[in-house]
Amino acid sequence: MQRFVLAFYLLLLTSCSGPGPAVPTVIGPTVTFDPNASPSSTSFQPLASPSRTTVTASPALPSASPTALVTFQPHYTLKAILDYAVHSLSVDESITYQNATGETLTSLVLAVEPNLWLGDFNLKGCTIDDQGVTDWNLNADRLGIPLTAQLIPGGVVKLSMHFYLNLPIADIHHVFGYNDRQINLVDWFPFIVPYSRGWLLHPPAEVGEHLVYDTADFDVTVTLSDPTLPVTVAASASAETSVGTWHYVMHNTRTFVFSASTDYQSVMIHSDGVTLTSYYYNENKAQAQTVLDNVARAVTTFSILFDPFPYPSLSIVESPFYDGMEFDGLFFLSQDFYIKDNGTVLNNLIDIAVHETAHQWWFGSVGNDQAMEPWLDEAMATYSERLFYERNYPEVTAWWAFRVDAYAPSGWVDTDIYHGGNFRSYANAVYLRGAQFLEALRRRVGEDVFFAFLKDYTVQMSGKHATADDFFRILRQHTNVDFSDIQQTYFQRQH
């Protein structure tokens, strides 16, 4: 869960780095939200946002086609030199990409999130199959690269680039960047966005996450420009290390992130074959252990209820960010939760850590369109909190009052990030009404059906992009019980 504030977005809509042409080249359709769509009929209205561009309407993202020519998924090789003292990176990146779209491609579109910060991203060079490219176009976070030859279905292309990052200061609303105690590299490299009747790249909004990720393989090397610095690196995977260098290999993941600090302490345990590491600041040692112990319980619980944990390791990183934020194999947890820990079981330190752990399934393993159907990861992760407490702390009966009832939530569960209003109204609709919907569904279909469905949904949609249609299709495979009235209560659109 991350809320993207558009502080710089207006300035960046026309920004362009490198040798791209002055007039943007049309690279291909970008699939995103329809700015002319009817507003949500909840009590709130969509925010007026002049920073949004007029683009093609977003169709529902289909399940993976059984006829797609998938031999291998994208492979990213990243070699980064980190200058910790001046908060910068020099990066060589190569992407091996197979066209599994079923269509002939004449271009690639990549998301470049660092370019949303003015002057942060500088693309120095780009090649396609070792041939130089000069007519690429970078506008806001969209990098369009024309291909030197058409890429037929099943065809393979290698894209290489060299770029610099000058990191911004990370405020409490943004993980990306640096603060006085850490450097956080999230969504830090260009990546090829999914393709579904067009390139799937949504603009940011005032609330929620906007990116959609395919699964990929990663080979990442991070090297300090000054290897004498006592830097600790927390990452999405465990590292092979040498002096000043960390090497990571990760498979079947949606992204790769890392955080570096000269102040980190860490505590580690192994649970159900997963290495869990809690990175913290020395003054919060006790809270870091509490987080670790409860994340271990959550991993065990969700591995039983959903599917085995999808990664070999999980890192928990204390951060000044004001909430929690999930990525594959790593999540950030607000330092404020550590400071305000009251020693009870039902508090934000534990509850939000459990929420972000659940995102390893609902975001990581089972992907979705976070902009258009955010309930598929956020409502599922929120309701997973309830499942955690009822199985690990059955004596704690106040979760609903603490997490849901206190906010008297209203709104449609299937609200998208562009019609969410402010964060409170958005969270009430997507997260909290989403949890209420899942509880009502559970009561209607019964315990056995509900939990058989959760497990089957996880297995069927692992590594894919789930949609609401997938959710209800798989549910109906498990029950003939009529739940149409529940849908009508919680959803604008029926499935």
Textual characterization of the structure:
There is one protein chain. The protein has 495 residues and is of the alpha+beta class. Among the domains are: 270-360, Neutral Protease, domain 2 (Orthogonal Bundle); 375-490, Neutral Protease Domain 2 (Neutral Protease, domain 2), CATH 1.10.390. It is 24% helix and 27% strand. The protein is built from ten helices and 25 strands. It has helices at 9-12, 285-305, 335-339, 348-358, 375-392, 399-404, 423-445, 447-461, 468-476, 484-490, and strands at 30-31, 75-83, 88-98, 105-111, 121-128, 131-132, 137-139, 142-151, 156-166, 177-178, 183-185, 191-192, 199-200, 216-224, 232-235, 240-242, 245-253, 258-261, 265-271, 274-280, 313-319, 324-327, 330-334, 367-368, 465-466. The strands form six sheets. An eight-stranded mixed beta sheet has the order 6-5-9-3-2-14-17-16, with no helix packed on it. Strands 19-20-21-23-22 form a five-stranded mixed beta sheet. Strand 7 (137-139) and strand 8 form a beta hairpin. Helix 2 (285-305) packs across helix 5. The longest helix has 23 residues, at 423-445. The chain is globular and about 60 Å long. Mean pLDDT is 88; it is low at 2-70.
